[in-house]
Design a protein that fits this description.
about 250 residues; alpha/beta; eight-stranded parallel β-barrel; binds 1,3-dihydroxyacetonephosphate
């Protein structure tokens, strides 16, 4: 299982430190899931320091498709690795829709992440219109094909895939466990075509309005290997409840 806390554009130095400390203190020693926190770029060092001596890992919310150069405002995969990240979120729907990141950019970002030794968490998901048009699986498969265009089998195997239906993000409208399972099985099928039986070992996580009261039902589905949590990851008690909801 994999549980990520995507803090998006929230918190300050003091509250990020405190939230990290509360999460670390509240996790049991027997925690079976891989837990990863994704603060803003500027809070990576303080969260890293607050995580010391814990098994919780550090990740960034985005990364440049360039290695270095004249790209004002960008942060490279190497810089993230250097500051202590092990993971990076790529292709989040807010990046795709608000910042117009294309499939081609996301494919380049994946390559940069692998070069730096980061594990990407690749986000895919359809909009409400696409679902209503019965195109949800077509859209998700197209996003996967495009993102993995330049990846080899080993790289695909190391990627965590987050299925985040856009209509469920920050809306309180969660996908039903069956809707999540259906799409996760389609993603598993895609992976099987690309990496064979190793597809079983790839983590496919669900994101979109996961809360303490719905996490267990979603996580109980066979192809749901955890969650990517937005709003509920900003409250230690809620995030901890989700971390133990399986
Ligand atoms: P919410 O949990 O706030 O819906 O956000 C989900 C998400 O976008 C995680 O990346």
């Amino acid at each position: 299982m994999f549980i990520g806390g995507n803090w998006k554009l929230h918190l300050d130095t003091q509250s990020a430190t405190q939230l990290t400390q509360e999460i670390v203190a509240g996790l049991s020693d027997k925690q079976a899931a891989e837990i990863v926190l994704f603060p803003t770029f500027v809070h990576l060092p303080v969260v890293r320091d607050a995580l010391c001596n814990s098994d919780v890992k550090l990740g960034a919310q985005n990364q440049s498709e360039h290695e270095q150069g004249a790209y004002t405002g960008e942060v490279s995969a190497w810089m993230l690795k250097d500051v202590g990240c092990q993971y990076v979120l790529l292709g989040h729907s807010e990046r795709r829709h608000v910042y117009h990141e294309t499939d081609a950019m996301i494919a380049k970002k994946l390559t940069r992440a692998f070069e730096a030794g980061l594990k990407p968490v690749l986000c895919v998901g359809e909009t409400l219109d696409e679902r209503d048009d019965d195109r949800a699986s077509e859209v998700v498969l197209q996003q996967l094909n495009a993102a993995f265009a330049d990846c080899d089998v080993a790289q695909i195997q190391t990627t965590v895939i987050a299925y985040e239906p856009v209509w469920a993000i920050g809306t309180g409208r969660v996908a039903t466990p069956d809707q999540a399972q259906t799409m996760h099985a389609i993603i598993r099928g895609f992976l099987h075509d690309r990496v064979g039986d190793k597809a079983r070992d790839v983590q496919i996580i669900y994101g979109g309005s996961v809360k303490p009261d719905n996490a267990k039902d979603i996580f109980s589905k066979p192809d749901v290997d955890g969650g990517l949590i937005g709003g509920a990851s900003l409250v230690a008690e809620d995030f901890l409840a989700i971390c133990s909801a399986f």
